[in-house]
Amino acid sequence: MIGCRARRPSEEEQDGQHSGGGGGARPSPLGHPGDGQRPAGRPAGPGGHRAGDQEGCDRARRPDRGRLPAVSPGGSALPGHRRRRPDPGPPEAGVHRGRAGRQLVIALSAAVAEAIDAVRDQFADTTVDVAPDGAGGAYIVVESIDVAPLYDPPATWLGFHLNATYPASDVYPHYTGPLARTDGQPHGSAIQQVTWRDRPALQLSRRSNRWNPAVDNAALKAQKVLTWLTSQ
Question: Could you read off the pLDDT of 49-108 as tens digits, one per residue?
């Protein structure tokens, strides 16, 4: 073996070789038997290897591995010895995992869509913004409503919600931007400071106790509320 010094036979082994060998070949000076000879008492091991070939050699012992490296399906170790997660396969049919923010969106009802057109006709000289609520109704904002000279600022927006039950239900309440009276007087009890759709607002509580879907509508109600506000 390379890097391993052979052990010299003892005197008893040398005597045995001389007495039993007869006219056989003499041992080599390095202690290895000659061609066709092997030391007495050392039978050949499996595959023809002699049991004493490695005797007397000090070999460095490698520490045992704490764990074996992960092996890919092809038989090669994965980089960094990381185990590959098994493929879970396609999700089962009919199983829906939770997804934040998803909801069923319903188109505007026919009555709400018709009411929006009427509001735009009523306030044709300004912009009317519409935001569907996802349940068949909509949030309406009429921009640039004139409230001078009673309020400051002199112009604001008017907002309200049309729910899916319209026109069976009243349109209530209405909202405007923050306003201050120019005469310095406080607002009446029907006007309150609130937050509507993430914006500061005044809530105008003008319920129609005798709401009649046959004659009342969103455009007419918005105009009545505006008239009431500017006449306080």
Answer: 554 444 444 555 555 555 665 555 555 555 555 556 666 666 554 434 444 445 566 889
Residue pair 173/205 in contact by the 8 Å Cβ criterion: yes
Could you tell me if 115 and 108 are in contact, meaning their C-beta atoms sit under 8 angstroms apart? Answer: no
Question: How many other CB atoms are there within 10 angstroms of residue 84's CB atom?
Answer: 10
Q: What is the pTM for the complete model shown? A: 0.56
Give the type of residue at 219: A
Domain presence at residue 16: no
CA-based radius of gyration for the chain: 50
Q: On the CB side of 211, how many CA atoms lie within 13 Å of its CA? A: 17
Quote the domain boundaries for residue 171: 110-229
Q: What is the mean pLDDT of each run of 10 residues along the chain (232 residues)?
A: 54 53 48 48 50 50 58 54 62 46 73 97 97 96 96 98 96 98 95 97 95 96 96 89
Phi-psi category of residue 184: left, alpha or beta, with phi > 0 → left and psi -120 to 50 → alpha: left
Q: Within a 10 A sphere around the Cβ of 192, how many other Cβ atoms?
A: 13
Residue 14 lies in a domain: no
* Calpha distance 104→135 (Å, rounded): 8
Q: Which two tokens stand for residue 18?
A: 């001389």
Question: Running DSSP on this structure, what letter comes out for residue 30?
Answer: T
How many independent structural domains does the chain possess? 1
Confirm whether 86 is domain-assigned.
no
Residue 44 lies in a domain: no
- Main-chain phi, psi angles of 97, to 5 degrees: -85, 150
